Amino acid sequence: MQGINFDLSEEQLAVQEAARDFAEKELLHDAIERDTHSKFPEKQVKMMGELGFLGMMVDPAYGGGGMDTISYVLALEEIAKIDASAAVIMSVNNSLVCWGLEKYGTEAQKEKYLKPLALGEKLGCFCLSEPEAGSDATSQKTTAIDKGDHYLVNGTKNWITNGGSSDIALVIAQTDADKGHRGINALIIEKGTEGFVVGKKEDKMGIRSSDTHSLMFSDSKVSKENRIGDDGHGFKFAMGTLDGGRIGIAAQALGIASGAYERALQYSKERKAFGKEISKHQAIQFKLADMHTKIEAARFLIYKAAFEKDQGRNYSESAAMAKVYASEVAMWVTTQAVQVHGGYGYVKEYHVERMMRDAKITEIYEGTSEIQRLVIARSILK
Ligand code: CAA
Ligand code: FAD
């Protein structure tokens, strides 16, 4: 008989523990310093590759871990609990780059690009946004003009996570403007391609140790062998890939929220005011109760979306619900965690101020909260 089972399998628990162990040993000690100096976690990203965290769901035939989406969510949560920047670096490589290549790429593309990406030997980035095309993603200005055996790419991509540190870029560009979104292609472009320039690094509010750059293309020649999917399939590739990406960002948000909650819970048992621990004041207890409840609600929305993805069902709506809810929970919980810490929450040492700054981006990238609501509304009204 089939039913609901909320228990994790032994394999899933082992992945969760491995990720927690890695995050506590390798990410925690200099997370504040990396945030302060916007320093990319180069050594830790290399280790994540070696531990199999950069290609978790990829078929072992292509160097991946062959794991389910729940395992991936568990690992991302543990890493984001400590360092949300490391989590987004991981999420982009797994969900937006490896997944898209495995699902839509040719055998040759998988051998040449997916394998080193899944093994963590190379890092990837996903380039959809432009200076004038964020939420309105079909308004692509970057062009990929068909020149027979290759495309000539011109334009600027904005806000690209892993933009400076990646070796391989998946770039969305317009080939035939008359066909609208059906004239868009997705191309694999290697760093070092002529005319491919990495622009300035953004100085951000949060996730400061992930690197965000604009990328410029000027008459960059890209072989047709590097097109992902059929001609004109690029927009659907981007949207289909983002459905899974949104589960990853929801897991990142969940990790930020649970990291801040755990710190607030601990602090409330230590800090005394008016002759007793602040956890004995009902106002603080109710905050903790609400934080815990919202985190659990976000967790189950995320698990449901991950489960639907693993079952091969349509998960656009559940991924959007998980992402909008978890990101808003992350923003609310981190704000409360700062409040529980009082003045100490407002300085770097206690981590929760960083978590509050990190939480904000989860309401913006991979589709803003407004765009998630648009996706959900279209789904329920169709
Ligand atoms: N899967 C596959 N195809 C999809 C799809 C999905 N989930 N959603 C839409 N499509 C298809 C539609 O079927 C349609 O094709 P047809 O006309 O052939 O049927 C086509 O895409 C266009 O769809 P819409 O008419 O719905 O397009 P729209 O202009 O109304 O826009 C949108 C839809 C949901 C607003 C979309 O533009 C969107 O998601 N915008 C947000 C962009 C975004 O999330 N960017 C994230 C960048 S990556 C990032 O941010 C990474 C990071 O930070 C770490
Ligand atoms: P806009 O689209 O201009 O939106 C401005 C405001 O208007 C928002 O509040 C939005 O919700 C609202 N709005 C827009 N349209 C509607 C509508 N139809 N209904 C209601 N409200 C609406 N992109 C990539 O391609 N790859 C990456 O790796 C990547 N990484 C990023 C990392 C960071 C740190 C940041 C800041 C962004 C990143 N992005 C990336 C871009 C990100 O996905 C976009 O910023 C996001 O999709 C919003 O686009 P926009 O900034 O142009 O805002």
Automatic annotation (TrEMBL):
Acyl-CoA dehydrogenase/oxidase C-terminal domain mapped to chain residues: 232-381
Acyl-CoA oxidase/dehydrogenase middle domain sequence ranges: 125-219
Keyword Metal-binding: no
Cofactor(s) required, per the database record: FAD
KW Cell division (keyword) present: no
Pfam families: Acyl-CoA_dh_1, Acyl-CoA_dh_M, Acyl-CoA_dh_N
Keywords assigned by UniProt, alphabetized: FAD, Flavoprotein, Oxidoreductase
InterPro entries per UniProt: Acyl-CoA_DH_CS, Acyl-CoA_Oxase/DH_mid-dom, Acyl-CoA_Oxase/DH_mid-dom_sf, AcylCo_DH-like_C, AcylCo_DH/oxidase_C, AcylCoA_DH/ox_N, AcylCoA_DH/ox_N_sf, AcylCoA_DH/oxidase_NM_dom_sf
Residues of the Acyl-CoA dehydrogenase/oxidase N-terminal domain: 9-121
EC number in record: 1.3.8.10
Molecular function terms, GO-annotated: acyl-CoA dehydrogenase activity; flavin adenine dinucleotide binding
Superkingdom of source: Bacteria
Family: Belongs to the acyl-CoA dehydrogenase family.
Protein name: Cyclohex-1-ene-1-carbonyl-CoA dehydrogenase
